[in-house]
Amino acid sequence: MEAMHASVLGSGYVGATLAACLADLGHDVTAVDIDKTVVERLNAGDPPIAEPGLDELYSKHVGDRLRATTDYDAVLDTDLTFLTVQTPAREDGSIDLSVVLAAAEQLGETLAAKDDYHLVVVKSTVIPGMVEEEVVPAIEAASGKREGEGFDVAVNPEFQSQGSAVEDFMQPDKIVLGTDGDNGPDRALARLHEVYEPLVERSGAPIVETGRREAAMIKYANNVFLASKISLINEIGNVCKEYDVDAYEVADAIGLDERIGAQFLRSGAGFGGSCFEKDTKALIAAARAADYEPELLDAVLGVNETQPRRMLELLDDHVDVAGKRAAVLGLAFKSGTDDTRGTRAFPVIDGLLDRGAEVVAYDPVAIENTREQYPDIEYADSAAAALDGASGALVVTDWDEFAALDEEFTTMAEPVVIDGRRIIEPTDDIVYEGLTW
Length: 437
Ligand code: UDX
Fold this sequence. Notes:
42% of the residues lie in helices and 14% in strands. The chain contains 15 helices and 14 strands. Helix 13 (367-373) links the parallel strand 10 (358-362) and strand 11 (378-379). Helix 4 packs parallel to helix 5 (130-143) and helix 11 (295-316) crosses helix 12 (345-354). Residues 159-162, 223, 226, 230, 264-266, 268, 270-273, 275-276, 333-334 line the site of uridine-5'-diphosphate-xylopyranose.
C-alpha cells in the first residue's frame, strides 16, 4: 500500500477519531481545526474527547505521522481532505450547513494555490443534494476551479457510536463511497480505495460504491431505521405492559428471526444521544420541504417522548411525589458516556418538578453536564445517597452499578422503583415496575 497524505477539517468527535484511525492505517495525517486549544491538546497526544483506544492512538502516532494545526495551508501538502465539521440542527429540525460551508470556502481559498488534483471528502451528515447544490459551488467560488478539473467531491458517511468510535471505525459493517456523474468519479473512487485499502484488509468490510445523494441518504436511513426499531419495540413494549407480557422475552424470540435481528430491541426509556433525534428531525424537515408528509418518522419521535411520560405515570400509580424527595438514577443518554444530549433523564426530571417533587439525581459521570441544565436540583454522590429517604426512584440509564443495588432501596421513604432500562433486580422489599415488562 502507498501511504496517502490526508487532511481532516474539524477535530470534533468524528474528526479527532478519523485522524487517529487514518494514521493507524498507515497514512500521514494532518488535523486542521480553528480552535487553538484543541490543536494544542491533539499535538500533546491528549484528544479532547474520551473514547476507548483513542488516547493510545494519539500517543502512538503524534510526532510521527499525525499532527494538528490551525493553518489551512497544511491542506496543500495532502492528497485529500475530509470535511468532518458539524451540521447542527436549526429550530425546525433542518440542518444548518453554515459551518460546512465556511470550511468549504476556506478550503477552496487554500486550494486556489494547489496545482495538483485534490479530493474533498464530505463526512459531515448532510441531506442529499446539499453537496452538489451548496458545498461544491462554495469550493468552486473560493478556489476559482471547476469541480472535475482541479478537484472532486465525494461523500463518505461515518457510522460510529459513542463509546466505541475507534472500534466501529476499525471494524465497520460497510464503507460507503459516494461519487458522481461526469466529474471524475473514477479518479475520486481510486483515491478513496487507496485510503481504505488497509482498512478493508484488516476488517474485511465491504465497500459500497454509490452516488453522492445515495451516500448522504444511507447515513440518514441507517440512523432513522435504528431509531424506528427502538420506537417500534417501545410501542410493542407499552402494549406488552398493559397485557402483563414481558417485552424482553418477546424481543428475545422475535430477534431470532434473521429478518428482524437481535440488536436494538431493548425497550424502555427510549433513545437519547446526538444522532437519532437530530437525524430523524432532519429527515422529517427534508421530507416536508419536498411536500411529503412523513407519518412514520413523526411517530418514531412521538413514541420516544411517550416513554419518559409513561415512567412518570407508573410512578403516579404508586406514590404522590408532591413535596417529597424523588430520585433519578442515571443522567447520561447511555452508559459509558458523560453525554447528556437527548437523554431521557431530562423529561423525567421535568415531569418530577412539574409534580412538585424535590429531585435528587445521581450519575457516575454525567452530573456536571446535567448541572448546566438543572442548576437547582440536588445531586447525590452515590446511588445510595440519592435513594436515602426518597419516595420513588426512576432508573433512566443502564449503568452496571445499578444492577448491584439491593439493600440501598430499604432506606427509601417509599420504595417504589420504576425501571426504564431493565437493570434493577426486583426484590420483596420494593414495589418494582418495569416500563415494558
Ligand atoms: C448512534 C448510532 O448507533 C451510530 O451508528 C451513529 O453513528 C450515531 O448514533 P449513539 O448515539 O452513540 O450512536 O448510541 P447508541 O448506542 O446507538 O444508542 C442510542 C440510544 O438508543 C441510547 O440512548 C440507548 O440507550 C438507546 N437504545 C439503544 C435503546 O433504547 N434500545 C436499544 O435496543 C438500543
